[in-house]
Structures are given as structure tokens and as C-alpha cells.
Amino acid sequence: MNQLSRLGIKQLRIMAALLKDGNLSQVADQMGLTQQAISANLATLRDVFGDPLFVRTGRGVLPTALALEMGSEINAILAALERLVERGPFDPMAVRATVNISASDYAHAVAVAPLLRAIREQAPHLKLILSEAEVDSLPARMGSGEIDLAVNIPANVPASFERRVLFQEHYVCVAAASSPLAGKRLSLKALAQQQHVVVSPARANLVGSADGWLQQLGLERNIILSVPHFLLMPQVLEATGAVAFLPSRLLPHPGLARVRLDGDVVPPGFELIAAWHPRAASSPLTSWLVGMLAR
Q1: I need a surface site. Which of 5, 120, 127, 209 has the fewest CB within 10 A?
Q2: Residue 243 belongs to what H/E stretch?
């Protein structure tokens, strides 16, 4: 039998008390146990360590050399266990950890980067890894602890994950600032006839968030290009003369201009959320960091 499996907190507390007081009946009273229970636990300790540990005298018990040697270690173990169950309030100044935040360049730019100064001021020893957005591998990588937080749309996050809404976002139609369409107003039919660029941050394809909306209106757009990053859009639209739907928080931008639509209609917007694995549900660091992102 594994000797460690025979040890419990009670035995360690008994040994620590005997080292301090040297009297079985006194220790029994302090711990609310009978002297027989103290003796039985002491017998287990003696068997585990292969040493008498305490020798009876006329006035109580005296520790052996091994018992004295182990005393400081036992006290340290008990103190560590106390700290586990009696944690003080969370102090970001004391945090020394690394957190990996997975997000698109858009989410990093508008939801994470603006708060980095405040995060660094309050948690100067916290290290952050800002990584690419994940979809297909997100559950496994968050389950393994490789990714700690995902800043994404709800559809890209498993339903079982904890989450908090950071903000509501809506789309705007844009073209390059130099485009003849800049500042113009188009009908939806004229919009659908334009060449379009979409952003696919997690899966490379020619599918965009506005496709379903246009299809419900009986329209289909001509997507000529897909890019992996939102921040490529100004250069790409300049080069192609195409239009795109972008989240509104990326504007204003000197290289982009709005294209207004008849009736000022736009595709359905989205929520941006911070999500974390259920295993981190009670993590004070996760709660604090999500709270900072939701400011």
C-alpha cells in the first residue's frame, strides 16, 4: 500500500500538536478527540514513518530526532492547506501569470488593445499572449489550458462555455476613400451588383456575414476576394475598387469611406463576447480580466 495514502490532515495536525504540547490528553481535548483516537492515529504515523516519533515520559511524550526534523515541514504543509481554504481578496498587483487571449485582429484592436494600459497598471506582472482567432480547435485548446480567453461572436464558442457580453456591434458598408462610391447612396440591388470583399478570420472561404441577409431580400452578391484580417481592408478595397461590410468600430479610418444604403438598412449586427472554459469559472484572475475587458 502506498504509505502516503494512509496519511491525512488529521494525523498531521495531531503530530504538530504533540510537537508543540507534548501531552496526549491535552491534544485530545484541543482537538475534541479521545485519548484512544489520538493513540490510534499516532500508531498509524509510527507505522508510516517507521519510527516511534514520540517516547512516553512521566510528564507526557518527547519527540524523537525524526519527529523534530519533520516538524517544520509538517507546519509548512498545514499552513499551505490553510491558505488554500482561506484565500484573501484577489489582488491583481500580486498576480504572476500568463494569459492567452484568442481573438480576431478586429477584436484585439477594439476590445483588448484599448484596455492594455489599464490592465498593465493594475497587474504589472501579468503577461499576455494575443493570439489568432480559433473556431474548430477552440474547444480542445481551451480545454487543455493553451487558450484562456476567447473574444469572439457567440456562434464561434461552445454553448457550454462561460461568457460575458462585451458590447453590441453593427455593420457599415464601406469602400476605399478614393472610390467613386465613397459617400454615395446605393439601392440594395445596386449594392449586390458591386464586387465584394469579405473577412474570414477563422475559416478561409468566400462566405460573409451579410450573405443570408441579402438572400432573404432576394439578392446575391459577387464576392471576389476573402482576406483573413479586418485590418487589410483599406489596402484591399483600394486595390480592387470593391465594397465590404465592416464592424462600425473600425471607423473612422483615413483609407475608408462609408457607402450609404437606401433606407439606411444594414445587415444584422452581433454581440462580441469574452468566453472561458467551465474549469476557469471560479478563477478570480479570469473574472477580473473579463471585467476589465467589459469596461
Answers
A1: 5
A2: strand 243-247
Q: Given this model, what pLDDT does residue 85 score?
A: 76
Q: CB–CB of 150/275 below 8 Å?
A: yes
CA distances from 116 to 130, 205, 282 (A): 11, 32, 23
The answer to whether 210 touches 269, Cβ cutoff 8 Å, is no
Query: Could you give the number of structural domains in the chain?
Result: 3
Look up residue 108 and give its three cell numbers: 484585439
Read off φ and ψ for residue 121, nearest 5 degrees: -65, -40
From the number of C-beta atoms within 10 Å of its C-beta (0-12, 13-18, 19+), residue 61 rates as buried
What are 109-147's pLDDT values in tens digits? 999 999 999 999 999 999 999 999 988 999 999 988 999
Residues 161 and 182 in one domain: no
d(CA 196, CA 178): 16
Cis check for the bond before 252: say yes or no (omega within 30 of 0).
yes
pLDDT classification of 2: cutoffs 50, 70, 90:
low
The closest of 213, 171, 162, 160 to 188, measured between CA atoms, is 213
Residues 67 and 135 in one domain: no
Question: pLDDT tens digits for 231-249?
Answer: 999 999 999 999 999 999 9
179 and 237 in a single domain? The answer is: yes
CATH of the domain at 49: 1.10.10.10
Please report the DSSP string for 93-162 in residue order: GG---EEEEEE-HHHIIIIIGGGHHHHHHH-TT-EEEEE---STTHHHHHHTTS--EEEE-GGGS-TTSE
Interatomic CA distance for residues 280 and 286, integer angstroms: 7
Instruction: Give the residue from 31, 18, 12 showing the smallest Cα distance to 61.
Output: 18
My answer on whether 80 and 133 are in the same domain is no
The CATH number of the domain holding residue 106 is 3.40.190.10
User: Tens digit of pLDDT for each residue in 246-258?
Assistant: 999 999 999 999 9
